[in-house]
């Protein structure tokens, strides 16, 4: 097929009804990029013979080398259908019905059964496919009266590797529909769950593509019946995942409705059993038919992307309907499932009509048998005579030279590309099953704008109406999902214009006419203009030199363009827009907001960019001029509108966990490294770039593969210098449990903390009378004395604080003014503004109150006394006020009688900020190795201003002048008291853990187990995938032991096993880092030297050494032996 002119693609952007924005989602190596190649071949972008081999959308060298996609790539495709006039009117009616259904969904919030609409659409599908030249050939000729329909399909190919989950979020946010690929052999894998959840969360309508069916025939050698059973199981697995999402959604809505009903009735009494029963009936009667995949609905495609074929049952229904004398719609519903063809009556019967007869289901008899037959005669048992007969019976036009080819795969691809072409089937399913931007935004926009509302309110603002209607005449609203770095020489303004075939013919025609005119002039004796050959050559050399200099100037330089989706209005070059940052709040319209002028607009075509003058609503596009205004993602808003709405959703599914410190090998190139890190931070949505207090430049990545990609980008594109990288820095957490503590006074910890601080050690000491963990601290100037008790937080409360960190962070950030201006006030009971902040405060209190009551008398009611969360004001550690009076500085006048005034004008309340700061510092760096604490509570029991503070000065003014000194000393004393109280319990390190999923065969199962055990992992469970020779293994692996794990396991198993590592959680390493043998049994077993390796101490010492903290190491272990080192 010839390449599509750019003007055609640009023209179609204005027709919203014929635009589709889709992404391809799948687990790694399930065939996304190969499928994309086949779709590109249909537009003449690559050769059809190279589809699946060239991997066009994998434009990076490391992507081609590894064979995996690392960055989302977009491209726009052209698709043309010829329908019968009657079918076109039916399709238009179906589109209107779908739009009406979408509007009903947006208004009512509940999707009803749309089986009638689906049937109508499917009829259109078969009609269109039968009239398409390259569709399933049924022998019918193209009707004289036909209507051509042209579509623009904006396709985004996303990565499947778990390290690049951020790219999947980017792709799904921009699209209205998705092709979800599942490997026919491996089935539903870990990342399949992730991408389905992402599509569900973003209200993206999916179409299921079961890919690599050829492996069932050639690898596993399944019969059609075995394959049919296996494919049904995959459908069940995918539908089970979708059903889980639906159930969660329904139960959440049901719970919310119950809570609202109780609130209206003004009672918190529990419902009766009868009411619960009615509620369960209500949940069961919710219609969920619209969320499932079934071949009869047209939303399931069976494919082999590497062999270039795909089909839906609609195509075979169109072929066999006339032969069987059945209605096409009826046959379509019967072509997959427990339906059989009675050979005597030629009628379709159900399972009950079998009466013991061994009949094949229709799906096998009419569909799979035919596909298996072609593979059998072409690849499995090659038979040229039978191949020619099959080609003739299918009425295919295959050249004899192609049939005589010795490459059986090439013959197979040639036959299938005409019989069941992949591109036609997939693009037709996209056009008919997935919504247009106008239809999709009626569903997606209310959920995006009102994510916490069960039923979205009616739109009142102009911008909201424009977004829901996808109105190109409204103001501009667009979402920038990520910034893409491209070389400057790729931009259209810097590229030499490539002439089309028509332009080249026109230029040749003009040249010929000029020569003819010159010849005629010569015959008539006219004297032409004399040309100086040397001057012409000199001008040519000068032009070539200028072009070369311009190319050298552009070489190595990068530009940032925004990868965007426009929801409303029409954006134009030169237009002024507002940029709303991720932290933009409509309540503060001047903060995190800037104005930008649109520098350029692009249609993204994989590796190339096409310049545009304007982009109407409903399209995916690239935008220039945002550098310095958008860091990673943001919202573009019309400058004429006041205020704005932040469209940035939640952050990444998995936070970056692997960090390394970077420095240039040549110190003079530090500025280039800093500039390169800035570009990397903008161009990669999943990376985080930090500058630590020590001055180190650190990057945080999602995994080992992501780290390698970032380093390649820095060295080759962004910084273009040699960079040295530290060993990966893995985060730990410090916690304590209720177990006998080891004596640590002689350990590295005690030496480090107590060295040179004999006087301070006397000021901060364990309480003789208080409970375990109680510390009495006095500042060095002996002005302030306080008592703090450290206690491990109960498991339920700790789990809640960890799971709801985002909710707590949002609440604390909204109420930041309280914490800053009124330190010491309880976080959850302080005065807040009415509205959303009050609701958030009430919700947190309601959820924490039963957890604190369940934890025991010591904790009951203490949720109202929480002074701060830590570290960084949002972590899973608590500072609790147990003083018995208000600790806030700006206290009300009516409680002054409970406030303890100090001497010299200094009050207890003046120390509130210092106490909070000391708590934050202590929880941000624990005593073991300076890592954040997790799950510790600190009860502030006493605080007083001592009498000898009068020595600082007689008058109140002089005493107040010393408050700065006292405040600093209170911070350090509070920090040390918290750390010492922590060590009173039995301290533990918490390891970051990966969830490891591996699929492998039985032959290498033992080797997989050995690699996991050697790296201190543990197997959770294993199961054999029914119908396949593969085992699925789930394990937990410490992140600190995971580096090189993938390469190691592939090497040991000769490539038969490949792991997927996803950050899961922090897990306690149940080993005391200060453990030494004490009892008689331990001394007998291990000896005084304790030969058993203390893993916790090893991890702790490695971190302390990296941070420059004291590490107790014996230089000479045993003095009995002497080693002599000889140099060669």
UniProtKB/TrEMBL annotation:
CDD domains the UniProt entry points to: aeEF2_snRNP_like_IV, eEF2_snRNP_like_C, EF2, EF2_II, EF2_snRNP_III
Residues spanning the membrane: none
Ranges of residues in domain Tr-type G: 17-344
Keyword Mitochondrion attached: no
Keyword match Nucleotide-binding: yes
Record keywords, A-Z: GTP-binding, Nucleotide-binding
Pfam families (UniProt xref): EFG_C, EFG_III, EFL1, GTP_EFTU
Full protein name: Cytoplasmic GTPase/eEF2-like protein (Ribosomal biogenesis)
Protein's organism: Linnemannia gamsii
Gene name for this UniProt entry: RIA1
């Amino acid at each position: 097929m010839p390449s599509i002119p750019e003007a055609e693609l640009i023209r179609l952007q204005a027709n919203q009804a014929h635009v589709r924005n889709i992404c391809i989602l799948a687990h790694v190596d399930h065939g996304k990029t190969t499928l994309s190649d086949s779709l590109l071949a249909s537009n003449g972008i690559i050769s059809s013979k190279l589809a699946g081999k060239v991997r066009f959308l994998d434009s990076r060298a490391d992507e081609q080398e590894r064979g995996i996609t690392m960055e989302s790539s977009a491209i726009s495709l052209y698709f043309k259908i010829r329908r019968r006039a009657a079918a076109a009117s039916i399709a238009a009616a179906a589109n209107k019905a779908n739009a009406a259904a979408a509007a009903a969904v947006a208004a009512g919030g509940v999707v009803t059964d749309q089986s009638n609409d689906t049937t109508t659409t499917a009829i259109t599908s078969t009609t269109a496919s039968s009239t398409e030249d390259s569709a399933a050939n049924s022998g019918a000729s193209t009707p004289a009266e036909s209507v051509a329909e042209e579509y623009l399909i904006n396709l985004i190919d996303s990565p499947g590797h778990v390290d690049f989950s951020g790219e999947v979020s980017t792709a799904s946010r921009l699209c209205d529909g998705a092709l979800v690929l599942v490997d026919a052999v491996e089935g539903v894998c870990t990342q399949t769950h992730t991408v389905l959840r992402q599509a569900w969360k973003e209200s993206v309508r999916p179409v299921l593509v079961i890919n690599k069916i050829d492996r069932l025939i050639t690898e596993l050698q399944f019969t059609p019946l075995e394959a049919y059973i296996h494919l049904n199981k995959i459908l069940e697995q995918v539908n089970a995942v979708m059903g889980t999402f639906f159930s969660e959604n329904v139960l959440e809505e049901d719970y919310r409705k119950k809570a609202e009903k109780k609130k209206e009735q003004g009672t918190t009494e529990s419902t009766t059993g009868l009411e619960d029963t009615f509620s369960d009936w209500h949940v069961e009667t919710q219609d969920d038919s619209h969320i499932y995949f079934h071949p009869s609905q047209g939303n399931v495609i069976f494919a082999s992307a590497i062999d270039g074929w795909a089909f839906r049952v609609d195509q075979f229904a169109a072929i066999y309907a006339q032969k069987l004398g059945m209605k096409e719609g009826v046959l379509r519903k019967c072509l997959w499932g427990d339906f059989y063809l009675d050979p005597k009556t030629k009628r379709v019967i159900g399972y009950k009509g079998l009466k013991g007869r061994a009949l094949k289901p229709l799906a096998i008899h009419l569909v799979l048998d035919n596909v298996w037959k072609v593979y059998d005669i072409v690849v499995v048992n090659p038979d040229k005579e039978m191949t020619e007969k099959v080609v003739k019976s299918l009425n295919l036009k295959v050249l004899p030279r192609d049939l005589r080819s010795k490459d059986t795969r090439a013959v197979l691809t040639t036959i299938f590309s005409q019989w069941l072409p992949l591109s036609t089937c997939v693009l037709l399913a996209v056009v008919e099953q997935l919504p247009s931007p106008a239809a999709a935004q009626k569903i997606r926009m209310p959920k995006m704008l009102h994510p916490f509302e069960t039923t979205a309110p009616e739109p009142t603002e102009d911008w909201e109406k424009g977004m829901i209607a996808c109105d190109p005449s409204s103001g501009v609203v667009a979402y920038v999902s990520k910034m893409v770095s491209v070389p400057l020489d790729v931009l259209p303004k810097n590229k030499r214009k490539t002439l089309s075939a028509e332009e080249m013919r026109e230029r040749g025609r003009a040249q010929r006419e000029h020569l003819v005119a010159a010849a005629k002039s010569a015959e008539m004796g006219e004297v032409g203009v004399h040309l100086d050959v040397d001057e012409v050559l000199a001008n040519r050399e000068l032009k070539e030199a200028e072009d070369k200099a311009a190319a050298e100037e552009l070489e190595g330089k990068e530009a940032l363009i925004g990868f965007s989706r426009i929801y409303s209005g029409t954006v134009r070059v030169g237009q002024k827009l507002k940029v709303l940052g991720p932290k933009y709040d409509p309540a503060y319209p001047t903060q995190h907001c800037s104005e930008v002028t649109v520098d350029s607009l692009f249609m993204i075509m994989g590796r190339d960019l096409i310049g545009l003058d304007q982009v109407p609503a409903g399209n995916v596009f690239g935008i220039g001029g945002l550098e310095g205004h958008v860091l990673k993602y943001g919202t573009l808003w019309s400058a004429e509108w006041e205020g704005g709405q932040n469209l940035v959703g939640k952050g990444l599914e998995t936070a970056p966990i692997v960090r390394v410190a970077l420095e240039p090998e040549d110190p003079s190139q530090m500025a280039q490294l800093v500039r390169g890190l800035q570009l990397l931070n903008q161009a990669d949505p999943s990376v985080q770039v930090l500058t630590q207090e020590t001055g180190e430049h650190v990057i945080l990545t999602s995994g080992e593969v992501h780290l390698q990609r970032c380093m390649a980008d820095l060295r080759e594109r962004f910084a273009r210098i040699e960079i040295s990288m530290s060993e990966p820095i893995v985060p730990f957490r410090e916690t304590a449990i209720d177990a006998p503590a080891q004596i640590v006074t002689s350990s590295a910890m005690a030496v480090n903390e107590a060295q040179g601080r004999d006087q301070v050690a006397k000021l901060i000491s364990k309480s003789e009378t208080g409970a375990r963990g109680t510390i009495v601290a006095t500042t060095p100037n002996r002005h302030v004395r306080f008592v703090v008790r450290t206690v491990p937080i109960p498991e339920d409360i700790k789990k809640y604080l960890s799971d709801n960190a985002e909710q707590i962070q949002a609440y604390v950030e909204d109420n930041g003014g309280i914490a800053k201006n009124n330190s010491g006030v309880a976080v959850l009971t302080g005065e807040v503004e009415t509205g959303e902040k009050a609701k958030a405060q009430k919700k947190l209190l309601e959820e924490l109150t039963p957890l604190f009551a369940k934890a025991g008398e010591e904790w009951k009611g203490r949720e109202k006394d929480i002074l701060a969360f830590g570290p960084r004001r949002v972590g899973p550690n608590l500072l609790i006020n147990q003083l018995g009076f208000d600790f806030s500085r700006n206290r009300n006048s009516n409680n002054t009688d409970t406030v303890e005034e100090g001497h010299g004008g200094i009050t207890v309340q003046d120390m509130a900020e210092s106490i909070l700061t000391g708590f934050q510092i202590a929880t941000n760096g624990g005593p073991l190795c300076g890592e954040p604490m997790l799950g510790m509570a600190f009860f502030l029991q006493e605080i007083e201003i001592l009498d000898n503070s009068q020595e600082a000065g007689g008058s109140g003014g002089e005493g107040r002048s010393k408050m700065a000194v006292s405040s600093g000393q209170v911070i350090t004393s509070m920090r040390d008291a918290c750390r010492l109280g922590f060590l009173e319990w039995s301290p533990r390190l918490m390891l970051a853990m990966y969830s490891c999923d591996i699929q492998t065969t039985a032959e290498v199962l033992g080797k997989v187990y050995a690699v996991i055990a050697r790296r201190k992992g543990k197997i959770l469970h294993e199961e054999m995938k029914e119908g396949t020779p593969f085992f699925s293994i789930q394990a937990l692996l410490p992140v600190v032991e995971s580096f090189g794990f993938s390469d190691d396991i592939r090497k040991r198993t000769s490539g038969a096993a490949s792991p997927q590592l996803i950050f899961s959680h922090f897990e306690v390493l149940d080993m005391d880092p200060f453990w030494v043998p004490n009892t008689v049994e331990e001394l007998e077993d291990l000896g005084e030297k304790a030969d058993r390796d203390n893993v916790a101490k090893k991890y702790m010492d490695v971190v302390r050494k990296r941070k420059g903290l004291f590490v107790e190491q014996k230089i000479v272990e045993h003095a009995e032996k002497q080693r002599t080192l000889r140099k060669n």
